[in-house]
Amino acid sequence: MPGAELETDLRQRRDRAVGEGRLGEIEGIDLTLRFLADKRSQTHRLTKITGRVDLGAPALRGRRGTGAADGVRSRRESRPR
Asked: Are the beta carbons of 26 and 17 closer than 8 angstroms?
């Protein structure tokens, strides 16, 4: 399961923080664990709906003709000669 190692580490850190009485750290770890559980739930839900999950990674594009900067000249090209 993705994130299992992260969750295990967070739970170990939380146990240690409880033993040392660090309330602020416990609260922060609990919040992080909730975010992790929410993200895992969202990932499962999207996987069921679409069969895949978009991680937001950029797609590879060709050198010319497909980039966002098409039609925009560089400084060198836009200087008068």
From this structure: yes
Positive or negative torsion for Cα 73, 75, 62, 53: negative
Contact 39, 6 (CB under 8 A): no
pLDDT per position in the chain (81 positions), as tens? 567 899 999 999 999 999 999 999 999 999 999 999 999 998 888 888 888 766 677 777 766 555 555 555 555 555 555
Pairwise CA distance, residues 20 & 33, whole Å: 19
42, 35 in Cβ contact below 8 A?
Answer: no
* pTM (global) more than 0.90: no
Q: How far is CA 27 from CA 20, 31, 39, 67, in A?
A: 13, 6, 18, 44
